Amino acid sequence: MVGNGPRSVTSIDFNNDNKEDLAVVNYYDNTVSLLLNNENGALQITMNYTVGNGPQSIISVDVNNDNKLDLVVANYLDNTISVLVSNGNGKFQIQSKYTVGSGSYNIISVDFNNDNKMDLAVVNSNDNTVSILLSNENRTFQTQMTFMVGNGPQSLTSADFNNDSKMDLGVANANDNTISILFGNGNGDFRTPDSFTVGNRPVSVTSGDLNNDSKLDLIVANSNDNTVSVLLSNGNRTFQNQTNYMV
Predict the structure, then answer these.
(1) Same domain, 68 and 129
(2) Last residue of a domain, one of 51, 78, 99
(3) Which residues fall within 8 angstroms of residue 31, CB to CB, at 6 or more apart?
(4) Which Pfam families does the UniProt record give (predicted)?
C-alpha cells in the first residue's frame, strides 16, 4: 500500500542497482511513497517522505549535478514545490520548499537558460500562470518568475518549436480550450504567449514531429469532447489550425 490519494508516479533507479523503482505522491496525506524494486521484480515500500500540502505531480531529475536522481513535487494546496535531494542509496534528504503560483498542478524540468543546469517550470491552475525557477550552482533554485497563460492551465511540455535552439513551452488551458505557446529567449525569460484553439477542455499536451518535416507539432488531449487535437507546425512560431480525431 502507498499513501492516501495517490495522484502521480515516476519510475527511475533510485539506489543504483540497475532496477527501476517507483515514487508516488499521495494527495491527502502529503507524502511521497518510495517503492524499491527487489531482485524478483516485486516492489517494497521503504519510506514515506513528507512534502507540501496536496501534492499533485512528481518528477525525477538530477537537480545538483551529482549523478543522483532527485525528486521534485508540485503541491497544489499550498502553492509550493518540494525538492528532495537523493543520497544515492534509495534515501532522500528532508524537503526544501519553494513558492510558486496558486494551484501548482504540473511540473517539468528543462535547461531554459543554457547553463547545463536543470530548471523547473510549473503550471498554476488557479492564477493562470507558469512559474519558472532557474537553478543555482548549489542545488537551490532562484525565486520564481511568472508568465501569464490561458484559463485553467493543467499540463505543459517543452520543445524548440521555432528551430532557434532555445527551449519553448506549450501549455494546455482547460477552461478556455486553448494552447499557450511561450517562446524562449534562451536566458530563462519568455515572450508574451501566443494562443491556439483546440478541443473542449484540453488537459494534456505533448509534442512530436508527426509529418517528418523536422518541425515539432502539438498533440493535445481534450477530455470533454473525447478528441485529440493535432496542430502541425509551420516552423516560424505559428501552427496550422487544429485537426481533431475522435478517441
Answers:
(1) no
(2) 99
(3) 3, 25, 48, 49, 50, 51, 55
(4) FG-GAP_3
User: In this structure, how many other beta carbons lie within 10 angstroms of the beta carbon of residue 150?
Assistant: 20
Q: Phi first, then psi: what are they for 104, rounded to 5°?
A: -60, 120
Contact 128, 149 (CB under 8 A): yes
- For the chain, 247 residues long, the average pLDDT of each consecutive 10-residue run is 94 92 97 90 88 98 92 98 94 96 98 96 98 90 98 97 95 98 97 97 98 96 98 93 97
pLDDT at 46: 80
Closest CA to 48 of 69, 19, 28: 28
pTM, 2 dp = 0.95
> What is the C-alpha separation between 59 and 7, in angstroms, rounded?
12
Q: Give the CATH number for residue 47.
A: 2.40.10
Q: Which residues pair with 173 in a beta bridge?
A: 153, 178
How many structural domains compose the chain?
A: 2
* Grid cell listed for 10: 515516476
Same domain, yes or no: 28 and 125: no
Q: Supply the range of the domain harboring residue 92.
A: 1-99
Residue 4 φ then ψ, to 5°: -90, 120
Q: Tell me if residue 108 falls in helix, strand or coil.
A: strand
Residue by residue, DSSP assigns 150-171 as: SSSEEEEEEE-TTSSSS-EEEE
Distance CA 57, CA 5 (A): 12
